[in-house]
Every structure is written in C-alpha cells, then in structure tokens.
Design brief:
2 copies of one chain form a homodimer. The first copy, chain A, is α+β, with helices and mostly antiparallel strands and 351 residues long. The first copy, chain A, has 11 helices and 15 strands. Chains A and B meet through helix 4, strand 4, strand 9, helix 7 and helix 8 of A and helix 4, strand 4, strand 8, strand 9 and helix 7 of B.
Chain lengths: 351, 351
C-alpha cells in the first residue's frame, strides 16, 4: 500500500483557487491559475501542478508575482499584440497572449501574442492545447532566468526554456511540450529525494563538474549539447528581447532586477482554416499519427507514442480516478493551508 | 600536404550556376541556387554545399525537381502567403517564402510564408540570416520524407527536419541552424567514408538495431529521444499538413507519391521594429551574447560559442582563402562537369 492520497480534480482546483484567493488574487484569476495547475496534475506533469503553490504564495508575498495585475496592451499591429503583464501569474498572462494570437490569426492567418513581464508560466501545453481546440496550429515559448548549463560552460547560462507546439487532431489535439534540457530541474529534484543515481550526461554539480550523484546534481545539461542551449538562447531572443525585458543578460550580470523572478512568453497561432479545409487537416494529422504508431517497434518497446499521448491518457484516468498526491507534497500543502487559514483539500481515499 | 583543392567563392558559384543552367534552370534561378549552395560551403556546412550538385541534377533529370517552375501564390491573408512551388529547387521556393513572410511582417508585425511542394531546401540558415539582415527575427522549418528513426521505432518514421532561428545582432545576425537528429545523415556518411566507429546512441542499422559500426549505420536517432522525433513530427504537421501536402504518411504508406522526393517549407518573420527600437534590440542581443560568452568554461573548452559563430568565422576565412574541396567530391563534380559538357571549376591551388 502506497501512502499517496488521492484527490479529485474538483477538490484540487478548489483548494488551489482558495489558496490563491487568500494570497490576494481575484476570484476569476485564482480560478484560472488553479485550473492551469490542476491541468498539469491531471496530465501527469506533477512538477508543474499544485506542488508549485507554496512557491507561488512566496512569490506573491515577496511582490515578484502581482496578485492584482493590470494587464495592458502596449503594442498592437494587424497580426500581433504585446501585453505588459504587470507581473501577473503566468497562466493569466499566457492565456491572454494565446487568446490575442488566436484572435489575430482568425483575422490575418497568423497571429503573435507576446507577454512581457509575466511570472512562472506553468505547463506550456495548457495554452497550445487550448488554441488547438479553437482550430489553431499553435506554438508557445517561455523565457526564464538561467537554470541550465550552457554548452561548454560550467555554470548556468540559459534556462531550460520550454517549447510547446499543438495542432488540431482527431479526438484530441496533438501536443508537444518539452524543455530544452536533457532533463528538467524537477526531475533532478525527484532523483535527489529518492536517492537514485542519475545517468552520465544529465547534470553538473555546484562547481560545474559532471556528476551522477543525485545529491550533488544542480544544473541540468542542455539536450543534444549545443542544440539545446542554442535553442534556449534563441528563445530568450525571440521572447525577452523582442519585448525589451532581458532575463539572461540581467541575471548573468547580477543586476538587482536580474536576480528577481521574471519571465516572458510568446504565443503564435496559425488559423489552419485560412489555408485549407480544417476537417481535412485534422484527418491528415490522424493519418500521420496512425502511420507513425504502426512503425515496427524497437526491442522492449510496447507501443510507439506520439506527442501528448501519454498526457492525454493520464488526463482521462486521473479525471476519473483522481490525482495521487505524494506524502511530502501533501505535507507541504497542509502546512501552507494551515498558515493561510484555508481548509486543506479533501481526499477520495488512498492509493 | 592534403590533397584538397581550394576554390574561390566566385569560382564555386560560377561552376554551380553553369551546371544548373545546363540542367535546365534559367540563368537567374541557376545563380540563386548556386549562391545558396556556395553559401553553405563558405559557412563550413559542406554537406549542404556543391556536393549536392550531382543529386540536384539527378532530381532535375528525373522530373522530381522542376527546372522551369511556375511559382504561384495559392493562398493569401493579411499576414500570410502560401506559395505553390511547382517542385522548384528549394532555394528558389524558400527565398520566396521568406521574402513573403518578411513583406507581410513589415505590414502586420508577423508574417508567415509557406512553400508547398518544394524540393531540397539546402541550408536553412541561408534564409533566416537573409531575413535577420532585413531586421526580422526569423524562424524557418523544412519537412522532408522520413530518414530518421522515430523514438521507440526500429525504422524511419520522421525526417531529421531542420529548424533555423535568426535574429539581428551586432555585426552579424545570431543564427541557429540545427537538425532534429542526434547527427545528420551526412555525418553518418562521413563516418562510413572514414571508417571511424560512431558513438552509441547515434544510429540504427538497416534492421533497426543500435550500432556503432559506421559501415552499418543507416538511420540517425532523434536528438534527446522523444523530444527530437516529436519536434520532427510537429514540423511535418505545421509545414506539410497546413499546405495539404503530406510527406510522412504518404511515405510510410508507400504510395507512389510518397516515394518521390518532395519537401515543404515554412518561414515566419517578426519585424522587431514594430515592437521597439531595432537598434536597442540589436544591442541587447549583443549584450546577451557577451554575457554567455563570458561564462566560466568547462574543462578542456577553449571558448564558449554562440549559435552561428563558428559558421560566421568559416565564412570570413573561406571567403578570403577559398573553399577546400575533398578529393572524392572533386572527382564526382569533375565527372558531372564532363557528363554535362560544362567546364570544371578552376582552383586557387591545393591546401
């Protein structure tokens, strides 16, 4: 018997919303951020779920995340919109940016939404899937401060900046959501907690030396060497520098601004219905997926998976059966609830 | 003394243009394709340079590449243009697509150019650098038939689809140009020719088994496992499926169309001057590059490089000193020249 507590999607969302409202967010904003966090848990991406709540509350209390942001459009063209997010919680800013990109794409074929001065973006696939459900081929990027080794360096130089791409599919959108590191920081934390040695090529220690010791692993290495850190650097340029809110240089120069939590986000939407029959597009996505899934499998591989497939299955299963919360996360959330005077979430049982 | 012959940039371009003109291209088209191939050689990306000429001539003679294409705009919105490339040589189609994206971006902030039914795209960075010189942040993708193992499969399922991103920089644009495989097919061919064993994790043999034997390596593996093949699959969706010219499914289903050489390309341009001061943007790119290059170096690393830096140096050096052509490539090109009745390029000397 495991000690994981199991919580329904609704209980998870309600709890997260109550915490965020108590930390100062308006009820609609609290509900929106809670939905993005609970979605990550439902998709099985627990590193981006409610486990982030204590950090969000810290950021809100430190003033790095603004509970009452005044989002403003600070730039607009026929196909693009730039939103100053006023340090809004990431899901508020990115939802606006993707909605702006989608609106522009319907009018102009392609649309760009830039979120300047946002905060933790949560799971990027949340925004691209939403756009894909609206008939968009969507791309999202998020820039953050350096937490990953740059290729050839012994120190953090870029972020594990995620990239997500989604397109309308058959029943579900096809959605890729990946970081640019070999592994995420969250995965290293997981290995530290469980004490499992990590493979060579995953991480550097605090002195910037390669390590397989989970207790010493600090910095993820970029995926595919120069490719991963190059991609992360270009994401900073496309995202932070286009909106004149640099993160990498400010951090590496150790300016007061650079050492505060800040992010920028980019959303691109392409309205596939402007270029062909959208039903035919979805059929061709399905056909491509079918062809890929039918490929001969490597030894020991049970099934060929397409991007987002595992997440969609987790979503269906967890929506039905509830989300398991590991004991350390439960304990941390219970302490947070206690501190804020919010009722702890109720469980469905244990799994 | 090596036996490489050294050829000036002009001689390389003139020779390539003469070959392509003899194979049926108009003089301006021959010059344009020759420039793209010579550019790759100058940048040190010899796998995408004049070594491709015999293959281009084969494709032209087989009718897969059209020497007299009638490019047509088949779709247009305020911010996007879709060009049917009529099987034009890739550089003709991609130059049009990027020019269209750039023109649209000036008007609308962001622009999309799609090239449908093009052929071999050549070096993708050629198009993004050109757009960056025009003040654009540019993204280019190219879709091709499967030549890379899909993650978990023992057969080709996707292409080593390249992605290029460039932004205006200080003296030079910052440009990333990468495939989605651990290595390129060209790199495997190189190892085969030199007989050098390849590292584990690079490739599969013809039966889809992992191999380190360069004589048996057939299929590159995707970079970072599921990330590389997922990215390649999404590039097929964004590029081929939006223009209703599927490559992956047709190939895997072994349709007559699927087994012919076809590509599709996508270009996105973002006019950074619509969102801020373009001079300030370039300064911030330079500042970020400076900060990254100043990172503490890992043991054995002489210099931290940013995307495109090595290529820019090769370009300067080879423009000055000429392009070295290895003996097997020289021999192949001489045979091609003889066959077509074109004068072989003249050398500057041997290096």
């Amino acid at each position: 018997m495991s000690e994981h507590r199991v919580v329904s999607a609704d209980a998870l969302r309600d709890f997260a919303a109550a915490v965020l409202a108590r930390a100062g967010l308006s009820a609609p904003h609290a509900a929106a951020v809670a939905d993005a966090l609970a979605w990550a848990n439902l998709r099985g991406v627990d590193t981006h779920g409610v486990t982030r709540l204590p950090r969000y509350v810290d950021l809100l209390q430190a003033g790095d995340m603004n509970p009452k942001p005044a989002l403003r459009v600070v730039g607009e063209t026929a196909a693009a919109v730039v939103i100053d997010a006023d340090r809004a919680p990431g899901p508020i800013a990115m939802t606006e940016a993707m909605a702006g990109a989608t609106r522009k794409a319907r009018a102009a074929g392609i649309g760009l939404g830039l979120a300047r001065a946002t905060t933790h973006t949560a799971a990027l696939g949340y925004y691209t899937i939403a756009a894909a459900r609206e008939g968009m081929a969507a791309i999202a990027l998020a820039a953050s401060w350096p937490n990953m080794a740059y290729h050839g360096a012994r120190a953090a130089g870029v972020s594990t900046s995620p990239i997500s791409i989604a397109v309308p599919g058959g029943r579900e959108p096809l959605v890729l959501d990946m970081g640019t590191g070999v592994v995420s920081v969250g995965r290293l934390t997981q290995a530290r907690k469980s004490g499992t040695p990590i493979p060579e090529g995953w991480a550097l220690d605090a002195e910037g030396r390669p390590t397989t010791d989970p207790q010493k692993a600090e910095l993820p290495l970029p995926m595919a060497g120069a490719k991963g850190s190059g991609l992360a650097l270009m994401i900073e340029c496309l995202t932070s520098l286009v909106v004149a809110n640099p993160l990498v240089s400010e951090f590496l120069e150790e300016t007061p601004l650079g050492l505060r939590h800040r992010q920028n986000g980019l959303a691109i939407a392409i309205d596939v219905s402007r270029f062909g029959d959208p039903a035919a597009f979805r059929r061709e996505v399905e056909r491509t997926v079918r062809a890929v899934k039918a490929l001969p499998r490597a030894d020991g591989v049970d099934e060929i998976l397409v991007p987002g497939e595992r997440g969609a299955r987790a979503y269906a299963q967890r929506t039905r059966d509830g989300v398991p919360i590991p004991p350390p996360v439960w304990k941390e959330l219970a302490a947070l609830a206690e501190r804020l005077g919010v009722a702890m979430m109720t469980t469905q049982g244990e799994s």
